Amino acid sequence: MTDTVKLALGIQPDFDRASVERAYDRWAPVYDLVFGGVFGKGRSAAIAATNAIGGRVLEVGIGTGISLPNYGPNVRIFGTDISQAMLDKAKDRVADLGLKNVEGLAVMDAEKLEFPDRSFDVVMAQYVVTAVPNPEAALDEFARVLRPGGQLILLSRVSADAGMRKFIENRLQPVVRRLGWRTEFAWSRYAHWLSRSQSVELVERRPVPPLGHFWLIRFRKLQSAAAA
Fold this sequence. Notes:
Structural class: alpha/beta
Shape: globular
Strand content: 15-25%
CATH topology of the domain at 14-128 and 143-152 and 193-223: Rossmann fold
CATH superfamily of the domain at 14-128 and 143-152 and 193-223: Vaccinia Virus protein VP39
Number of helices: 8
CATH class of the domain at 14-128 and 143-152 and 193-223: Alpha Beta
Largest sheet: 7 strands, mixed
Strand order of the largest sheet: 3-2-1-4-5-7-6
Radius of gyration: 17 Å
């Protein structure tokens, strides 16, 4: 989606990678304290869905590794994040807890994943889509590295498509951009990406705490994408 199209749809201009990286470097020391409990129920739902599938898992935006202890023994996890400070916390967690099912942790851009096509059975991204400069590019990458039949599991804030809530969210965007995320990412953008992609299908979307603004969204990569 070009900047011209975004502006025509009333979508706020995106932020850049460097500003996101700086924001999450600042969040690293307090991230678990601020967000650990708030997003706990959503995180549990996403991890349960991942454990039910098993296999090789890529968690994009793994942050401090807060999810790592909850993955089942039937999964092997590779974690990426844009923030080295976040990953340093995750590496300490892996070492302290002796987590043997973590294959690796690496700084990586969600829009340019350094993996071959069809590398993972599950791609998990918690609160990442609204925190990258070009969300559709990231979603394309998630689908690319997913094996046919595998699932893309997202936790994400879904904004309003219209009305007073959309007005408030747009007004708040200049403020929250400095914190490292956007208020604007409505379901219509997911639907537009889904129709354009044609390599995945929607499996589930349901609200999760807090506040009813956050959703668990699951896509499955189509078997027909095997030759794509």
